[in-house]
Amino acid sequence: GAQAQMIGVTIAEFNDNFLTLLRNGMSEYAAEHGVELIVEDAQRDIGKQLSQIQNFVASGVDAIIVNPVDTDATVASAKALWEADRAASIVRGRANWPRVLTAQRGAARR
Question: Cβ(80)–Cβ(103) under 8 Å?
Fold first, then answer.
């Protein structure tokens, strides 16, 4: 398949040492490989993070990386991504996978 050219990234909070290293590493890798990386700070706000994901989908990014504010909130995030048919990755967080998969199956039935 074609390499993603534009990737949206929503990070739980920029004010975290590990997440700063992660963000900087992703930015360096993207720059080296000609990928546009759009990185947003969710500021530990679940609603803000879901809005960022919806904005990424609306702007037509090829893929979305989510560092979840709250692992239970990954259900809503995954459902939004599934419905938009976007490649996605959850980073450093234990998603509530049984609920995520249920949300995905529900979306697929529509």
Answer: no
For residue 4, give the DSSP letter: P
Cα 72 to chain centroid distance, Å, stands at 14
Residue closest to 101 by CA, chosen among 91, 81, 51: 81
Reported as a single tens digit per residue, the pLDDT across 41-81 is: 999 999 999 899 889 989 989 888 888 888 776 666 767 77
Q: Is the pLDDT of residue 93 over 70?
A: no
The pLDDT score that the predictor gives to residue 75 is 67
User: Any residues with CB less than 8 A from the CB of 9 and at least 6 apart, and which?
Assistant: 23, 26, 37, 38, 39, 40, 64, 65, 66, 67
